[in-house]
Amino acid sequence: MLQTLKNAWKTKEIRSKILFTVFILLLYRIGTVIPVPFVDSNKISGTFSGTIFDYLNTLSGGSLGTATLFALGVQPYINASIIIQLLGVVFPNSIGTWAKEDKQKFNFLTRIVTVALALVTAIAYYFYLKNNNALTKAATAGENSTFWLYGIAIVLCYCAGASIIMWLGERINESGIGNGISLILFANIVASVPSFAINLTELVIGTYGYKNNSPVLYGILSTLFAIVLVVAVVALLVLIIWVTGSERRIPIQYAKKVVGRKMYGGQSTNLPIKLNMTGVMPIIFASSIVSLVPTILQFAGVSESTKGGWGVVAKIFSTSGVLYPIALFALIIAFAYFYTQITFDPNEVANNLKRQGGAIPGIRQGKPTADYIKKILGKVTLVGALFLGFIALLPSLAGPHLIKPILEWFIKGAYTPELASQYATSISNSASQLSSVFTFGGTTLLIVVGVAIETFRELEAQLTMRNYKGFLN
């Protein structure tokens, strides 16, 4: 990896692309701290805890929680991409043809849908700010009869911010290295690493002694929890890297043929099918869809504590409910198959092998070869999709409901029943706080690793054309 970066930096063209990409990401990070007029972000900083906005705030680099210019993040663009790609399957003769043959029309349609979704989301976010009293006095109806003009200005700022993010991502695609939107997500997640480390350290240090009637034992347990958390993150990184590099190799044998006085072919090679062929896109798209209803409810001011039918709906679609992880798991598998079908065509591969004189040993050329590849592809995709689903649901599986009983069991074993009962409430509340520190869910880890590997692979591909040996070799 280091050798790849070294060789890439020595090449003037690639160095220019790297510097351009870094410059665009720097511009994006500057945009995440530009305030929007007539908004007081201090009044919404604590309203995201335990909601879907915690996850969305991580993906936006913290700008959603501070209500800055780029608060909407990449969600409008991602949702627009989902809609357009699904429409391409529904209308293969028009939008589907544009996706393959006319990228300019396809990208233009994606931009239009992105702006439309950004406008709708910006309006909803404005009302969320208004309901939480996060607007200045000049932007409220009680102080100014023209408050609606301030509202329009706020909505236009957020809509413009989402459009600028889309433009920055496209500039990276055209003149930089890697996928623009993926790199922006990568930058957002990495930007939250320092705060994650600081919060975890403060939580551990603050639990020693008898603060808030917490026993010394809890300080020890919190330290052990922090160690286990760090070890789990490292283990997940290793597992994700290993699975991302895993592949199923189908043997290919090329027939011998004589051209003039020379004999060609007769070589044996393989057709690699990656275990995680779709990368992080199924998780990103599935998370965007499954978080749509909780986000709408949150914008509307509906929470689990709301009385009546809306409160029940909020509990059903809550991130801590049963329906959310089930829907997320099912959508991840569905999108994994969907993206595999649009990125890998077994029929085209079989036809190419037939034209080049290649065949799978024991399988006839043509349709039998395509059917065989489809069968292997289906099995590999299922395993990869299950892995993605497991990674995405891991934070839910290891949430407070698992941490709380373990901590209480340790307390009850070390203290009398009276003291154990007294400390139980403190331990239960702290367990939720400890688990909430783990903002790096499996999804964000997979995004970080996937984007890093894909970017280095693109660097490797460009270096290969210049006869440089990189880490993939």
Would you mind describing this structure in some detail?
This protein is mostly helical. The protein contains 20 helices and five strands. It has a three-stranded antiparallel β-sheet with strand order 4-1-5.
Which descriptors would you attach to this protein?
single chain, 473 residues, mainly alpha, 3-stranded antiparallel beta sheet, two-stranded antiparallel sheet
Tell me the major beta sheet: 3 strands, antiparallel
The fraction of residues in strands falls at under 5%
Count of alpha/pi helices:
20
Which structural class matches the secondary elements? mainly alpha
What is the averaged pLDDT score? 77
As an assembly, this protein is single chain
Order of helices and strands: HHHHHHHHHHHEEEEHHHHHEHHHH
What gyration radius follows from the Cα positions, in whole Å? Answer: 26 Å
The helix content, as a percent range, equals: 55-70%
- Unreliable stretches: 208-214, 436-440, 468-473
Would you report the number of β strands?
5
Distance between the terminal alpha carbons, to the nearest Å? Answer: 10 Å
Strand order of the largest sheet: 4-1-5
Morphology: globular
